[in-house]
Amino acid sequence: MKIKDIVNRDIVTLTNCEHEPIHIPGQIQPHGFLLGITLQWKIDFCSENVAAYFGISHNQMLGKDFAAVFGVTAENEILAYTNGDEFKDAFPLEIELLGSLFQINIHKSEGIYILEAELLFADQEKLADAYKQTIQFVSQMNKTTSLKDLCALVAQGTREITGYDRVMIYRFDEQYNGEVFAEDCREDLEPFLGLHYPHTDIPAQARELYIKNLLRLIVDIDYEPVPIYTVDDKEGKNLDLSLSILRSTSPIHVEYLKNIGVGATLTISLIHHGKLWGLIACHHYSKKNISPEIRLAAKLQGQFITSQIDIRQSNDEYLSAQKTNLALEQLTSLELPVLKESLEKIVSAPQLLEIANASGVSIITRDKIYKNGLTPSDEQIIDLLRHLKSKKNTDFFSTNKISDHFPEFDENSNFAGIIYHSLGNNGHVIWFRPETISEIKWGGDPEKRIVKDSKGLHPGNSYNIYKQIVKNQSSNWKLYEINAASQYTHTLYNHLILIMLSEEEEKYRSQSEILKETNSELENINWISTHDLQEPLRKIQLITSKMLSELDVISTESISNSLQRVSKSANRMSGLLEDILKYTRIKNTREKLEEVDLNKILKSTIKEMHETIAESNAIIEHENLPEVHAISFLMRQLFNNILQNSIKYASSERQPKIVITASQEPVLIHDKYKVYCHWVRFSDNGIGFEQQYAESIFKVFTRLHTQEHYTGSGIGLALCKKIMQTVGGDIQAEGKPNQGTDIIIYFPCDPEDTLLPL
């Protein structure tokens, strides 16, 4: 029978250590021995050091039945143990083999039972003692609230239970860089708390083994590996030691530990949601082994942490999440008008920043950018949106390091982190966080973890604290912040939809009113064409017919009187046609609004009406008038019509007086679906009118008085109404019979407003 060892002799260096097959080293540590037994209970693998325990060489054991070497009783005990699945992982089997007491761990690997035996601890701790320590720890654990406090307690408790010189709780980030999150160590040792270690210190295949095998011991860092031998009966025969307690360690890892002066280690994996969250790393500065009871108690410490991660992280974030939820509740309960102007109120609300703990926010809708806080420039926001749109199906995007995704923004400290949400066709919303320059303390320069000498590449031996300045990134977005931003995005989206629907409704309502008004105007024009225009025509026809029939007898004086009557009727027709033309021209005006000083408009209007004002002996008093967004020539026409109207309908019982007042500062005025900023009021002491006619007096060709008493076409105030509609404003009237009339005009707020459709 030919026998061979299965030692992996591939040379391992730092250049290939990431691919080192650490699960099949073919060697074990010497503080125990290993047997690989087939399902037929033949010894197929055996470590070389069995002779040190039994005086029987591995050559003599290999290929033999287990019972032939160790006896039937031992085989039956092991068989009974392997059937008790619920116990074998927690408690090793205590058994006598050839006169010596051992503790045996057994697991199955690729159809082979792997038995790992260590001599029974002479001073082994009793299970009751470990239980007592565990109960004490649980009692103390319940007094902690934060995850950091819990980890600090676990580090202290693990060191008390195990007796190691240093116990550290490692926590990994997304890239598996490690941070010493908690620590307890001898007072004379330099603390490592807060130090960071690069992911290269623990290669990917090592992390995989940490997930499979939760506990790992190195009893003496200076150990000589013991080779494993097997019967050479097939090519490539090997033994997977992923779950082994005694498995030999990578020479690279051993060299690393020697460089930092460690003599023995215990490592316990912290698994959370199926991933390697961290490690309990125990270091001793001389060789050290611990009993199965202590191993189990230490393993339970790790399970205490992993069982509490979600709860403690929730506790850590609870107060902050409460503030975020309160801000979200306040923000969603704001009473907002269904107008685009409400976006100014939304973006200026401090809660919009608080829900994501952001430093700035912008809402982009209808090619307009609303901003608050520390934000990029408009050009940068537009550029950022263009880059975001280049990503396919990007309705949501968040990062704390924008330069990782878009290097163009590498040097912009205003926004290193963003949360972006699309608002569909209605726009976008972005929360910003600025660059947070932070200092990371590494356990040695991460760029110099490898040194080169005449023998090749090796782990560095300098682990002095190395400080690294991290730039171009913000603090991480918490999950509750991302969720709150997402929830409000939905609310904002719905609000924008309501604004759009409201505007569409107003548009159709306005169009309906315009159509109704136009139909009414057409009826009035039809009426005026059949009545007011025909009346002077009939007079002209009658007068001229009479003159023609009396040519022989009519006197020169009579001809003169008749021609004067014809001229008067023709002038009336001309006035009506001119007013209709003015009205039509105003309806078709489409000029942009401009800044108009109403003081200049009033001054020029009074100058033009000087003779009329003098003839009526009217008094005009006025305050300082505001600058508004309007059209100059229409304002002159408006003021002229209003003043003419007040003078025309002056009372015969008193001297005509017109007082003009105005808002001195912009003030928001809500009227139905419109918002205005300035008002001007014309108050006269004329004949007034009944308030029931307050709307009808603005209709075209409407008269409250007969032509005999007050001349005019009835278009004056209708023209005023059209002028105010054209500039996006409004006009109203208040009247009291025999006391006077107030005409109030309202002007729009936004200088960028386009003219309303007429």
UniProtKB/TrEMBL annotation:
Alphabetical list of CDD domains matching this protein: HisKA
Keywords: ATP-binding, Chromophore, Kinase, Nucleotide-binding, Phosphoprotein, Photoreceptor protein, Receptor, Sensory transduction, Transferase
Catalysis: reaction(s): ATP + protein L-histidine = ADP + protein N-phospho-L-histidine
Residue ranges constituting the Histidine kinase domain according to the UniProt record: 528-751
GO molecular function terms attached to this record: ATP binding
One Pfam family linked to the record: GAF
Entry EC number(s): 2.7.13.3
Domain called Phytochrome chromophore attachment site: residue spans: 146-303
Domain of life: Bacteria
Entry similarity comment: In the N-terminal section; belongs to the phytochrome family.
PANTHER family: PAC DOMAIN-CONTAINING PROTEIN, PHYTOCHROME-LIKE PROTEIN CPH1
Listed name of the protein: histidine kinase
